[in-house]
Write a structure and sequence with these properties.
about 60 residues, alpha+beta, DUF1508 domain-containing protein
Length: about 60
């Protein structure tokens, strides 16, 4: 399971991270506004999940 974490940074805006349950960071970044950080965090999560789905799909096709 993955989650998007938003952290407020003084004067710097917002930091976003995509982490798993153990705390391993898969993607991160900084944005000036919270909505922007939320957008990019969720975008990174979607990209991560879509790549995993495509990898599983291509592996299943190569076994046939």
């Amino acid at each position: 399971m993955f989650e998007v974490i938003l952290t407020r940074r003084k004067r710097f805006g917002w930091r976003w991270q995509v982490c798993d349950q153990s705390g391993k960071i898969f993607a991160d970044g900084f944005e000036r506004t919270r909505p922007s950080a939320k957008y990019y965090g969720e975008r990174a999560l979607f990209f991560l999940l879509s790549q995993a789905h495509l990898r599983n799909r291509s592996a299943a096709a190569s076994e046939d």
